[in-house]
């Protein structure tokens, strides 16, 4: 195999890329403060001393609400491009398609409501 300028350029770019990626990491580990105690171990909450257990777990209800919000948020996001293109449609086809979409979106809200997803359980104190 003959070593050419192309091989040298590839090796040079690989070395420079590794230095570009690893250089800041190495410099940060060398120049960063080494103190471990005191305020360094505390979680940062906008300069305010945290109250209680800052690493406490959230109830599963928060995650359920977040997932439902994301699902409905994405569904409503589909309405924006439809609303911008609605004025150029001809006939009632687009209106009925939007109506069907909104019907199923409302049906999902009714289903979640019937399942009791929107009722917030009271926390039981022992």
From TrEMBL:
Gene3D superfamilies: NADH:ubiquinone/plastoquinone oxidoreductase, chain 3
Membrane-topology descriptor: Multi-pass membrane protein
GO molecular function, one term: NADH dehydrogenase (ubiquinone) activity
Name by which UniProt lists this protein: NADH-quinone oxidoreductase subunit
Enzyme Commission identifier(s): 7.1.1.-
Function of the molecule: NDH-1 shuttles electrons from NADH, via FMN and iron-sulfur (Fe-S) centers, to quinones in the respiratory chain.
The keyword Ion transport is annotated on this UniProt entry: no
Organism: Telmatospirillum siberiense
């Amino acid at each position: 195999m003959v070593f050419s300028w192309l091989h040298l350029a590839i090796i040079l770019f690989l070395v420079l890329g590794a230095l570009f990626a690893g250089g800041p990491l190495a410099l940060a580990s060398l120049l960063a403060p080494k103190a471990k105690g005191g305020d360094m171990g505390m979680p940062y909450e906008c300069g305010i001393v945290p109250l209680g257990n800052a690493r406490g777990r959230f109830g599963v209800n928060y995650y359920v609400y977040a997932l439902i919000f994301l699902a409905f948020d994405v569904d409503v996001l589909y309405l924006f491009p439809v609303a911008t293109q609605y004025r150029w449609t001809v006939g009632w086809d687009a209106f009925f398609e939007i109506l069907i979409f909104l019907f199923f979106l409302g049906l999902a809200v009714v289903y979640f409501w019937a399942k009791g997803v929107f009722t917030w359980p009271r926390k039981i104190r022992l």
